[in-house]
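EI: anyone free to look at a 338-residue chain?
SC: sure, send it
EI:
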Amino acid sequence: MKKVLSILKWTLGILALLVLALFIYVQLAWSKKYEAPLPDIKASADSAVIARGKYLAFGPSHCATCHVPMDKSMEVESGLEIPLSGGWELEIPGFGKFRAPNITPDPETGIGKLSDGELARTLRHAVGSDGRLIAPFMPYQNMSDDDVQALISFMRSQPPVKNKIEKTEWSFVAKALMAFGVMKPESPKVAPPKSLPPDTTAAYGEYLAVNVANCKGCHTRMDPNSGALVGQPFAGGNVFSDAFTKGHSMVSPNITPHPGNGVISSWDFQRFKTRMQGGRVLDYTPMPWGALSRLTDNDVKAIYAYLKSLPAVDHKIVKTDYAPGEKPPVYTNTAAGN
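SC: here you go
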C-alpha cells in the first residue's frame, strides 16, 4: 500500500508540475508579435472615395454594427449614422470578452496616431499596430485595395471622439491556442485585386458575399474550437447563442439553391431584394439586417446572382430559431459533403 501511495504521490506531483509548466508557457508565449507587410495604401481626401468607404462601413462591411457604443447599436441598425467610437462588447464562453475599439481619428483613444499602412495591415492581415493578433471578426484579407483605401479614408474623415475602450480579454484557452500557433493571423492566400468596379454579375456578388459582407463566414459551418470553416459553403449550420440572442439559439440557414433545403431557392429577385433591404424583424438575431438594408439595388442583384449560381447542397436545417431552453441539433456537415 505504501508503494502504491508513493507512486500516486509522484504521479500527481509530476502532473502538477506539467500543468504549472503549461500555464507558465502559455502566459509567456500567447502575446507573441507577428510580422506582416504594411500595404502601400494611402487615405484619400476625395469625396467619392470617402463616400464609398462610408457606404461600406455602414452597409455591406457592417463596421458600424460593432464599432459603436452598446447603447447605440440598435439605433444604428435602424439608420442612425454616428462616429465609430467603439464600445460593442461580446463574451464568447471559453474564448474571452471581445471589445470593438474606437476607430475615429482621436489621437489618444482612437486611430489618430496610426499610419495608413498600419490600418491597412489590420484589415488585410489581422495584425495590430503593435504586432498582436486581432480577433478574427473582420475577414477582409481579399478586399480590394480600392475598398481598403475607401474604408481608411472614411475612418480618417470622421470627427474624433475621445472614448477609451478597454482591451479584449482573452481566456486561457484562447491564449493557449495562440501560444501553440493554432490561432494566428490569416493573410491573403492570393494577391487581392487592386480594383473591382461594382456591377451586377455573380462574380462581383461573390466578392461581396465572401470578401466584404462575410456571408460565407456565418452561413458555412465553423469548427467551434478553431473557428475554421469546415462545412459546405453557404449550407448553414452555425449556432449563435450569446448575450445578443437573448437566450435564443439561432442557426444560420442553408442559402444554396437546393430546391428542398435552400431557404431562398424558390425566391425570385424581388422577394430577395425586399427581405435584404427590409431591415431587422427580430431584435435578437445575429444577422446584421440594419447594415444589409443599406445595400444598393445593384449590390443586391450581384449577391442574388452569386447565391443562385452556387452548387445546390442537400443539407437540411431543421429550423433557425430555438427558444430559450430549446437545444438545437449539432450539425456536422463538412466541405466533403459528409
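EI: The CA atoms of residues 103 and 329 lie 38 Å apart.
SC: 👍
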